[in-house]
Design a protein that fits this description.
By secondary structure, the chain is mainly β. The protein has one helix spanning 43-51; strands spanning 2-14, 17-26, 58-66, 72-78.
């Protein structure tokens, strides 16, 4: 089974300070992805929200689980379903 994460307008606020603002992310099956940026750019926060360890303040985060039997199951977190 392969998980394919997708995010739309994902945002995380810490009080009034933004940790991540309006992040869109699509990772196709079989791809290896790295995040790079300056210190304080929100890479660990984005990964935490994508993995479900942190709850986003706004936006949508979901994963499609693709199986060999062509059955697709969706799970999401955030303010609304995709």
């Amino acid at each position: 089974m392969t998980s394919v994460p997708h995010t739309r307008a994902l945002t995380k606020l810490y009080g009034r300070r933004p940790g991540v603002t309006d992040a869109d992310l699509d990772i196709p099956p079989g791809r290896v992805v790295g995040l790079a940026g300056p210190s304080g750019a929100g890479m660990p926060t984005l990964l935490g929200m994508t993995c479900g360890l942190l709850e986003p303040t706004a936006g949508t985060n979901w994963q499609a689980e693709l199986t060999s039997s062509s059955t697709t199951t969706f799970a999401w977190s955030g303010n609304e379903a995709p």
